[in-house]
Specification:
This protein has three domains: 4-44, no CATH class; 65-146, no CATH class; 166-330, Glutaredoxin (3-Layer(aba) Sandwich), CATH 3.40.30.10. The protein is 57% helix and 10% strand. The protein contains 13 helices and seven strands. It starts with 6 loop residues before the first helix and ends with a helix.
């Protein structure tokens, strides 16, 4: 229990503090000392990145809908018709009708030879919905291109953290990609090829840093990551990186030695490295860093601090990079 004679002092301390920082609210008090919102935000910024990124994606989806509604309203007004009539003219009226033959082909390609009239109608309805969605998306893209649309909603980003790892690209590249990956993950393998393709296009504008995130469901991923760490000690990380992904289906304890030989590594030195604790420690450090960011799947990657999960096509990745380059150009 707080003695009565202490209360004035505590109240005075609290009052003095609030007067010194009147606009900074506290989220908790510990022994009469406030934990400020600014301190808490700094502490949680990276730990909540996954949740904040998911929320941002939802906000962008809602923002896109609001933008599209405004564009449709403006275009309908320009044409002196209602939005409903505009959709009918530009979307519904321009969708090719689905034929019964097309629906039959879909069912037959799926291995179905005997199907009911209801199944046929269901496929026709599904094809019609897809065509309507595609046409609507095409029309809205065209409307956006006709108007000056800029998304200003700021994305959540990792703050105050410098990622260290095996990197390729200029040190001061305007776009920094940090990839958390798993050598036994098939999606990581395909994404690796996509990254290589994109890096050739943006060779002077992008820096890529690789971080280990071997998933427990992949029995050889941990050892493969350690093998790449040992290859890095001989200056051969990226050669080993490419070979491990290229030979994912052959990954096994014996295969790592064979791959090391093909990568022109000093085999006795490589094997001695694998017996040490340091490669496992290095991999564990990367894994812990990923967990702290809320990463739970591979591939996951950061582009200038923005978190994304899942493999992207080359076109989608280029769009993300171009967006960052545009933002850097405005600064």
């Amino acid at each position: 229990m707080i003695k009565k004679r202490m209360l004035p002092m505590l109240l005075l301390a609290a009052s003095c503090f609030s007067l010194a920082q009147p606009n900074v609210p506290a989220v908790a008090w510990i022994d009469g000392v406030p934990l400020l919102r600014t301190e808490f935000d700094t502490f949680t910024a990276n730990q909540l990145l996954r949740l904040k990124s998911d929320l941002y994606a939802a906000e962008v989806a809602i923002l896109d809908e609001a933008i599209e509604n405004r564009l449709l309203a403006a275009e309908a007004k320009h044409q002196n018709i209602t939005v409903k009539d505009l959709i009918q003219r530009e979307v519904t009226g321009k969708i090719p009708k689905v034929s019964e033959a097309e629906a039959r082909a879909v069912l037959e390609n799926a291995g179905k030879r005997d199907f009911s009239e209801a199944s046929l109608e269901s496929v026709m309805s599904d094809l019609a919905r897809r065509r309507a969605a595609t046409r609507r998306a095409e029309y809205l893209i065209a409307l956006r291109q006709e108007h000056d649309v800029k998304i200003l909603l700021p994305a959540p980003r990792v703050t105050g953290q410098i990622f260290k790892g095996e990197s390729v690209g200029p040190l001061k590249a305007p776009v920094d990609i940090v990839e958390f990956s798993d050598f036994q993950c098939p999606f990581c393998g395909s994404f690796s090829m996509t990254l290589n393709e994109v890096l050739r296009v943006y060779e002077d504008k992008v820096r890529l840093t690789y971080k280990h995130f071997p998933l427990p469901i992949h029995p050889q991923a941990e050892k493969a990551a350690q093998a790449s760490v040992c290859a890095a000690e001989q200056g051969k990380f990226w050669d080993m990186h490419d070979r491990l992904f290229a030979e994912q289906r052959l990954l096994a304890a014996a295969a790592f030695k064979e791959i090391a030989v093909r990568a022109d590594l000093d085999l006795p030195v490589f094997e001695a490295c694998l017996r040490k604790q340091s490669p496992a420690t290095s991999v564990a450090r990367d894994f812990a860093e990923g967990l702290a960011l809320g990463i739970s799947a591979t591939p996951s990657f950061l582009i200038n601090g923005r978190l994304f999960t899942g493999a992207r096509s080359a076109a989608a990745l280029k769009e993300l990079i171009d967006t960052e380059l545009e933002l850097v150009g405005r600064e």
